[in-house]
Task: structure prediction
Amino acid sequence: MTLDIKSVEIKEKRLTFGHVERRIGTHRAATRYEEATYDLQPTVNFHYRPTYNPKYELYDKNKTNIKMDDWYKFIDPRQYYYSSYVAARAKQQEGSEQNFSFIDKRNLLDSMPNEVKKQILTCILPLRHYEWGANMNNLQIVSEGYGAAIASAAMFHAEDRLGTAQYLTRGALLITQNETQDLDNSVNIWVNDSSWQGLRKAMEDSFVLEDWFELHFLQNMIMDSFIHPLFFDYYELQLNEKGVIAQSMMTEFMRTWYDESSKWVDKTIQIACEESDANNELLSSWAKKYIPIIEEATLSLAKNLVDNHIETVASIKQNLLDRLAKHSIIV
Result:
């Protein structure tokens, strides 16, 4: 007796959901990112306007002066949905944990000069309040933004800012051997120290911006393009040249995160500019308005951090202008 086993290939009738299929076609299966992003936001059948802002629908294109034919053009180049985002951050967290453990086991902070420790606690630690503000701003983008493509990416961005604030806090606690007084002092520095008041005012002014895309452009493009390179590139490069590497190890996440997140920020600005000349002109006007404000605030901070602070901030500004020029935004 012989047994002849045959296999039959059953072709699926549909490769993905109908609303995704209408965007990508029927010729291929959708990626998980596409299924987790495209057209998830409701567009009809709202019961009533929000009582806290009744001039708009719950999801309303008119909450920004940027105009788009399709708001799902703002696809994240990183293709982050919940699972891929969590996996990427978990891997980075593992690397950061190894860095902190290495610093602790090798007593690297013992060789850090006291003046550097003091500088970190007085000139770097208050930055955690800036990161908290960036978290709030990105949550506002999530709340007011239109389309799940940009809202979901902004949500991940907001959570990253809390992580950055926590790393700054953890580094300070490692330096002070878990003494919390310097955390309280950092609040006082953020609120009262003259060198921080330009940045604090810019942050608090951003809290009341009504146009969510303007807020995205100000926080994630302009402010971050000045602040992150100053604190986590130029300042730490100066420390490394003096043989102090522990601070760079404690802030490794910030540098890799900034390089990665800039790809998403740049893509959103590129797409908005390519949509219309009106969008490009509006973004250019915002750049002309905000860059001088943030430049002045950064100069006030840089003089306490780096040598040749005027040249350093000029270099940071030029890098930002070069990024904007790629999208035909001329300041």
Remarks:
- The chain has one domain: 71-325.
- DSSP finds 13 helices and no strands in the chain.
- Residues 212-241 form the longest helix (30 residues).
